[in-house]
Amino acid sequence: MAEPRRNAKEGRSDVGESVAEDVARLWAEVVATARRTVDDGLVVGTSGNVSARLGDLVLVTPSGVPYDRLTPADLTGVDLTGRQVLGTLVPTSELPMHLAVYRATDARAVVHTHAVHATAVSTLVPELPLVHYMAAALGGPVRVAPYATYGTGELAENMLRALAGRSGCLLGNHGTITYGATLDQAFDRTAQLEWMCRLWLTASSVPGLSPSLLTEAQVAEVGERLKGYGQRR
């Protein structure tokens, strides 16, 4: 799509009407997804962030603004270099992670959370043990990216290494990040990852017992079956 040009006074872009409608619709979906992360207990306050890509435009939640206060007028967008082209609110401090995902993958949406169980697991192991076959939905064993200060290029680099061949990973002492072809898919992957982490922590907490784990071959087999899962369109 053509690059939007921001109106300095109003923080709006000079784009065609149809493109503007697409942007407005997608922004509404970004806000709804961000609110969903709060409603489902995946973030507290303004922690975590959500973005979606439309052509070379990335719509992203702004920094430090409670999601229930976001309105259509708060639309915030950047290009793939991080240059702000829509809105006047400062984009999320985790913008480097979001842009790194878009530049390295075919992602159309990214969800980052500070989910409790996932963050706990990130402090215990370098990879989430294969306690459930739904690891296949994320591409295989979910890795933990080494800790780095939030909002830094170092964190983005660590994340990309952990994401290799995966659609989600844990961020050491930090949280989760997942991506997908849609906001719904990215969110569902985040929720699934948090659930698997909770499952492993629960099973691991039984005194004197250790959870049985699947092999990578078993998870890979499920991955093949998942390719045909759901309704055909």
Automatic annotation (TrEMBL):
It comes from Streptomyces nogalater. Gene3D superfamilies: Class II aldolase/adducin N-terminal domain (3.40.225.10). The keyword Translocase does not apply. SMART domains: Aldolase_II (SM01007). Residues 28-201 form the Class II aldolase/adducin N-terminal domain. Pfam families: Aldolase_II. Keywords: Lyase, Metal-binding. This is Class II aldolase/adducin family protein. The keyword Transmembrane helix does not apply.
